[in-house]
Amino acid sequence: MSCAGPRMKMDPTLHTDKKPSWIKVRLPNNPVFWDTKSMIKDLNLVTVCEEAQCPNRWECWGQGTATFMIAGEKCTRACGFCAVKTARPDQLEADEPQRVAEATRRMKLKHVVITAVARDDLKDGGAEHFNKVITEIRATNPGIIIEVLVPDFNDRDWALQMVMDARPHIFNHNLETVERLTPLVRSRAKYWRSLAVLKKAGDMVGGKVAVKSGLMLGLGETQQEVEKSMDDLLDHNVTVLTMGQYLRPTPRHLPVVDYITPEKFDELKEIALAKGFRHVASGPLVRSSYHAADFRPELDVLDDIEADLRGTTELEVKPSDLGIPAAKADVFQESLNQENAE
């Protein structure tokens, strides 16, 4: 880990070409991998495993798990670390919630992770689509743990509320990097906005959700900065933390400044646990959804969510819930439906 970070316009010569011995990826060698790949193709689904070039996709698919990416495969943002393509997104697919739910049934999943590209072209940022996917999964696969990894919805509280009203068990929004590097790594995002989203998500459901976030290391951050980000996350309701090595997808992306050793990742895990995180996954190949099922929310949280759902007749967000006057409710709903259909 660097003693001093790189300049805001990162020098490409900072890139460390040679990967160390501990960055190893095992290729598929069992039929489960190919069954998973075939099922994903059959249901015409998108996975972050493929789109983000996750180094663990061989292992995860070989174990019959995958992280589903909804709302298309084209992102409206262009983060300096991310392999997902940036382009004008396609319109939402109305049957995607059913297809994702069917995948969880076929795979007999006990824990599913749902993520999405940033959809700044939609008024709600894709929040209503998240709500529908969560609701459909729960109806198709009762008892499954549902984890969502969401964009920041441009800090629109009413959009975030749509997601939380569907009552995911685990809410994840990645901070990604330390405050100093955020303008370089995530030029369309803001460090404190992401922290605010994490806190609001927990507050919206009275703390009845596990709040999770993640950091990439190796971009030139200092240990002091990493520990400061840990403190900031704890101050904003986060109890589950992932830390992994940044790997450069292409030469057009940000350089890898440092390869963090497994021993350093172990040290940072112990520091995070000592600070108060309930669960920490830390290692070179750790990603947000890697071995996600290793963490299970507290039993009382799960019970509270189910109790709340039993007492709710519908999960749809009403304009009145968002402080929108009744006289404008029809205009709001019509505008939202039209925006999401385009």
UniProtKB/TrEMBL annotation:
Binds 2 [4Fe-4S] clusters per subunit. One cluster is coordinated with 3 cysteines and an exchangeable S-adenosyl-L-methionine. CDD domains: Radical_SAM. GO terms for biological process: protein lipoylation. It catalyses: [[Fe-S] cluster scaffold protein carrying a second [4Fe-4S](2+) cluster] + N(6)-octanoyl-L-lysyl-[protein] + 2 oxidized [2Fe-2S]-[ferredoxin] + 2 S-adenosyl-L-methionine + 4 H(+) = [[Fe-S] cluster scaffold protein] + N(6)-[(R)-dihydrolipoyl]-L-lysyl-[protein] + 4 Fe(3+) + 2 hydrogen sulfide + 2 5'-deoxyadenosine + 2 L-methionine + 2 reduced [2Fe-2S]-[ferredoxin]. It comes from the Bacteria. Residues 61-278 form the Radical SAM core domain. It is found in: Cytoplasm. Pathway: Protein modification; protein lipoylation via endogenous pathway; protein N(6)-(lipoyl)lysine from octanoyl-[acyl-carrier-protein]: step 2/2. Its EC number is 2.8.1.8. Transmembrane segments: none annotated. Keywords: 4Fe-4S, Cytoplasm, Iron, Iron-sulfur, Metal-binding, S-adenosyl-L-methionine, Transferase. Its cofactor is [4Fe-4S] cluster. SMART domains: Elp3 (SM00729). GO terms for cellular component: cytoplasm. [4Fe-4S] cluster 1 binds at residues 49, 54, 60, 289. GO terms for molecular function: 4 iron, 4 sulfur cluster binding; lipoate synthase activity; metal ion binding. InterPro entries: Aldolase_TIM (IPR013785), Elp3/MiaA/NifB-like_rSAM (IPR006638), LIAS_N (IPR031691), Lipoyl_synth (IPR003698), rSAM (IPR007197), rSAM_sf (IPR058240). It holds the Pfam family LIAS_N. It is an enzyme of class 2 (transferase). [4Fe-4S] cluster 2 binds at residues 75, 79, 82. HAMAP family: Lipoyl_synth (MF_00206). This is Lipoyl synthase.
